[in-house]
Amino acid sequence: MIDVCFTYSELQDTCGKLSVIIDTLRATTTIITALNNGARYIIPVETVNEASKQKNVYKDALLGGERKGLKIDGFDLGNSPLEYSKDIVSGSGIIFTTTNGTRAIKSALGSKIILAALINSKAVSDYIKSAGNEITIVCSGTKGRFTMEDTYTAGCIISKTARYDLTDSAFAAKCLYESMNKDPEFLYKTCTHLKYLVNKGFKEDIMYSLKEDTTETIPFYIDGKIIRDI
To answer: Which residue ranges make up each domain of the chain?
Structure first.
């Protein structure tokens, strides 16, 4: 059975399940990109203070993340996937904190966790297509509220699995994607967070993040770190 939580606050029993975490704009897109470009691991934390504590342990790691969409003062990188190029992140560890995405990851502790976005949607759909686990796709949302782009991504993944064992919320996400993907400009017209990021100067991030299937990298969260394809 595939289920969808429209925000991570809806997530309840995770034991024995596979949790697929989505924050398309932009945390999971950035994490996927960083690993695809050679980052060794990413440590997700919820607060800036936790990031500083981890930095004391992993002294060579880069600090990455955002608050209100913008790079945190004193950090090496923000939450733009375009910042995480091979020449910057290859061979490095990254300590990472964002407003919504890293909290969504932490909400799923106790389950097997992978990360998804539009850029790896086909790879994730192939992975879960025949998975025996109960699968919960967790949309990060924004500040505890529903976001169109995360639900659209969930629907994209579900549509590509061609599975029919769906809860009502999973079926709704699938229908949303299959109706909206006929008009690629529709997301630009409807998504509140997308418009916010455009106003902050991140239009190129959005164009990058909304392209489907540009990588086959699947991040796995294991023992406090996110690593590439186990």
So the answer is: 2-223
